[in-house]
Amino acid sequence: MKFETRAIHDGQAPDPVTGAVTVPVFQTSTFQQDAPGRHRGYEYARTGNPTRSALETALASLEGGKHALAFSSGVAATNAVFSLLKQGDHIVAGDDLYGGTYRLLERVFSKWGITTTYADGGDPESFRRAMRSSTRLVWVETPTNPLLKIVDIKAIAKESRNRNVLVAVDNTFASPFFQNPLSLGADIVVHSTTKYIAGHSDLVGGAVVVNDDEVYRELKFLQNAAGAVPGPWDAWLTLRGLKTLAVRMKAHEENALFLANFLSRHPGVKRVHYPGLKSHPGHRLAARQMSGFGGMIGLELKGSLKETDRFLSRLKLFTLAESLGGVESLVSNPARMTHASIPRQQRLARGIADTLVRLSVGIENKADLKEDLVQALSGETAARGGLPKGSPVYL
Ligand code: P1T
Questions:
Q1: What is the residue range of 151's domain?
Q2: How far apart are CA 92 and CA 86, in angstroms?
Q3: Single pTM value for the model
């Protein structure tokens, strides 16, 4: 069955007891046992809950994987994958990644003797060079957060397989609709389901999808042992969201491509990072390993941080907020928001300018979104034309 059909049916058959067409919210912490240790598949809701099981079945299906596990956040899912490692193990991670992932590596796992080397996401060879005999895991995002770099999953997976190193791909930006890393040779897929999968900016959640039974067993153990599970309501909302993932992703992409083209020609814009633009260094690779380019745009304006701040404050439809992937458009300034946990020198070395703006393009009408950008950019351009400080900018 095709993606759109699986999103609506897999794991989501009508309830066998009542015929309810949607999966019930099993709001219970525990389950009756018929005799001590004899239960009907569920014993305690941290270990398993039928609403969560339905979500896990659907997520595995969307990623083309055998097993999925749902977590209470994307960071909790990431934490479970890093917890597969032991003291002395080494990770090679792409150098452009969510600030919270960097923080987890540098401020939590490093304390326990798990070290990380960062490799250039654009160069598979740099991953090979960073590997040591103690390397157990390669971790990449693609497209990356926030610079939208494209990492060659197949090339990295091939190199890692020879060395018995697990490859994990954080697929949050692409969503399973545009990219399935397991089919490109990755061992583990991670999602912040907070973003496109749930899609409505109304919950925080995460997921891990794998094919290998042994890796699944270890992760399932960690899910229960560490306990960062989603409650049934969040599992249910995520299920409701993912039914429309295909239609939403098509709309996100159409709008993002339209706006990226417009922005790349605007005189107030220095640089646009969007893999769907032919000028993007990862465009051809993205066209090969993804079936669409997604809804995220990186943007650098001409001028200083002051002009950037003016632009941010003038936007009306793009809401200044962390997160991404919801139906509504959001804008952020990674250096002071999502990536503030990376020290400034590190950020600059990775190409994350203080003035970088990140757009999560929603599914509103694209002409309205363009108009919002036009007015915010013209304000910024007019202001640079010499209006006294603090003057209102009329257009
Ligand atoms: O926020 P949470 O659900 O815990 O997911 C963490 C996470 C993991 N991976 C990627 C690629 C992410 O972008 C995130 C969270 N990111 C943001 C909140 C953000 O605005 O970038």
A1: 3-242
A2: 15
A3: 0.95
